[in-house]
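Weekly modeling sync, notes
Attendees: S.R. (lead), two postdocs, one rotation student

Agenda item 3: backlog of single-chain predictions. S.R. asked that every request posted to the team notebook include the full sequence so nobody has to chase files. The rotation student volunteered to paste the first one in as an example of the format we agreed on. Action items at the bottom.

Example entry:
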Amino acid sequence: MKKPVYILNGPNLNLLGQREPEIYGTTTLADIQAQCEASAAEHGLTITFHQSNDEGRLVTLIQEARTKAGALIINAGAYTHTSVALLDALQVLDIPIIEVHLSNIFKREPFRHHSYISTVATSLLCGFGAQGYIMALNALAPIREEG
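Predicted structure, as returned to the notebook:
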């Protein structure tokens, strides 16, 4: 994959390690970024890693990924369950989209069971904690020579 893998993170993920560690664990977002950078390098991939609490900023980054990314890994946080704007932006991507969640959203509150992202995602990983990001990168590694 000649273009970087965009890894986008939604609201409150900047508080990982502090926020509800019984659900999200103690790994920080900076830890996840470092793990992703190391894993990507092992596979000959590069990443572009972002976090935003702002829905509009995430839409802009998804739109940017249309031309600058070879694939997209997204943990949209709470926007997963509410954002038609993210869905609309994702619908125009012609690259693999992997949706990642640290917790198993289907074992949580009923409102978390619905994902707008899943309707357009290539695949979904949830419940593996920070390892889900690495699993997503591992899934993309075989297509690194394409696109």
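Discussion: group reviewed the output briefly. The beta strands are 5-9, 47-51, 71-75, 97-101, 123-126.
Action items: rotation student to repeat for the remaining queue; S.R. to check formatting next week.
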